[in-house]
Amino acid sequence: MMRRALIVVLLIAVAAPLMLAMSQLPPHGSPETPPYTHVSPYYLEHGAEEGGAENIVTSVILNYRGFDTQHEVTVIFTAMAAVLAVLLLAGSEPTDAEDAPGESPVPVSVVVRFIVRVLAPFIALFSAYVVLNGHITPGGGFQGGTIAGALVIALSLVMSREEADALLPRKPEHLLQAAAPIAFFLTGVAGLALFGDYLFFPRDEAFRWAAVLMLTVIEVGIGVGGASVLVRIFRAMRAD
Fold first, then answer.
1. Helices (DSSP H) in 60-202: which residue ranges?
2. Which residues, at least 6 apart from 239, have a Cβ–Cβ distance to it below 8 Å?
3. Tell me: the pLDDT tens digits for 44-86?
């Protein structure tokens, strides 16, 4: 009884200041809040110049909150490792016999096979465009990587295992899955070595090319890593 009472008292002691703080917050969406009166106008006014990207969203994600985004891609990689660990422990990792072509009881439609193969080059080109132009137009590594990963998965469903493995080889896939954290780390170290701060993007007009190059490296790393994670999880679940 005493233990339950102590737990209730502790919960109230923790909840009371949190509820008090929430009661003093401005209404949700109020135009008087700091994000609307200070943060957003500053980003819109200085984002392209300071962030190194014409696309304000990219400037915010990869520059102003670059540390947060680096932690995000690290969490995604860690989550992928955890999902694969569960699948491997459950015995879902496909073997050569399980993943051999022709094992599916439902044959692939000739129409589906033709459409996927015809559209594949255009989808791949669009994926590359989304990744490489993320600093100019809406898009970037996350979106382009998702498109590329979905394309590889679609192709693997209409191709033999050997042909599918040629699209994304299994041997270097562990390195490819970590491409996003590695790209962030290398870019951050480059900023530290060249400009004195980790993950620093040069703001001088003379070095704008360096900022664009650093942003592009991160975008490509995120795209490659995201696509590899999606494909790897699909391969691990394919035996089911």
1. 66-89, 110-132, 141-158, 161-167, 173-177, 179-195
2. 92, 93, 94, 95, 98, 99
3. 888 888 877 888 888 888 888 889 988 988 888 888 888 877 8
